[in-house]
Amino acid sequence: SIVQNNFFFFASSLNHLIGTYNKPYIAIINGITMGGGVSTLKGKLGIYRGLTGHKLKVDVLFDGIATHFVPSEKLADLKRDLLTLREIDIKSVLTVLNKHQPKFSLASLMSQIENCFSAQTVEEIIERLKKDNSDWANVLFKMSPSSLKITKRTIDEGKEKSLADCLNIEFRLVCTALTKDGVRVLLIDKDRKPLWKPTSLPDVTNEYLNKRFAVLPVKKALQLCTRKL
Q1: Per-residue pLDDT of the chain (229 residues; tens, 9 = 90+)
Q2: Helices marked H in 53-109
Q3: Top enzyme class of this protein (predicted)?
Q4: How many Å apart are CA 77 and CA 75, to the nearest integer?
Q5: 64 to each of 36, 59, 104, 108, how far by Cα in Å?
Q6: Residue closest to 34 by CA, chosen among 219, 170, 188, 199
Q7: Can you tell me the distance from the alpha carbon of 119 to that of 112, in angstroms, rounded to the nearest whole number?
Q8: Which of 46, 73, 147, 168 could be bridged to 41 by S-S, CB 3.0 to 4.6 A?
Q9: How many Cα neighbours within 13 Å face the side chain of 148?
């Protein structure tokens, strides 16, 4: 829809501005936060996060998405400490930020993640998960077949692309591939009975994917500011 596309147009533009901003700043992320960048995560964490939808929580630090971690209940203390610093320098700021060091929740599962999610296709990933008797196989089985393949291709290709290129691709997908049924199932009817189209992984062909990744006409394409701010 026009509203949907406009929302993601401005969201993508803002993400690009933040990603290329020259001035140092501290962004405090608290609560439900949407974002990208999974193609840059170490090993196969990006594929794992993207396909399973596993929530990050404290792992934003270990995944490399965030630089530091502070528990939500300590955010007021963090703000107070930052605002009362006598000297505003990097060392002083880092001293405040480094007070809290959580544990990585997936530490014991990394070898399994690397083995299963290193497969070349979604179908192969699911087969490896089944052989491993992993609950993740059931998780992926419930997901939209097209979303799984689109997500994997986006992450695979994103590793070699710039932020601007990745945002452009993601915006194209919003315009061509974002499904309404997932929204209906989770937020509107909440019946947990999606009617995916295509209905199975084999039906999500390369031809189908290529259409979703096709370049948009100039008038509909994402236009990003290239001027440094």
Answers
A1: 565 678 888 888 888 888 888 887 778 888 887 766 678 888 899 999 999 988 887 888 888 888 888 888 888 888 888 888 877 777 777 777 777 777 888 999 999 999 999 999 999 999 999 999 998 998 998 889 999 999 999 999 998 899 999 999 988 888 887 666 666 666 666 767 788 889 999 999 999 999 999 988 888 888 887 666 6
A2: 60-63, 75-83, 90-97
A3: hydrolase
A4: 5
A5: 12, 8, 12, 18
A6: 170
A7: 12
A8: 46
A9: 28
**Which letter, b or e, does each residue of 64-98 get, where b requires 16 or more Cβ atoms within 10 Å of its Cβ?**
ebbebbbeeeeeeebeebeeeeeeeeeeebeebbe
* DSSP sequence for 38-60: GGGSSTTHHHHHHHH----GGGH
Cα 226 to Cα 224: distance, rounded to the nearest angstrom: 6
Chain position carrying tokens 């590793």:
159
Distance of CA 226 to the CA centre of its chain: 23
pTM of the model: 0.82
Euclidean distance between the first and the last CA atom of the chain, given in angstroms as a whole number: 31
Contact 44/109 with Cβ under 8 angstroms? no
Element (H, E) at 162: none
Around Cβ 107, how many Cβ atoms within 10 Å?
9
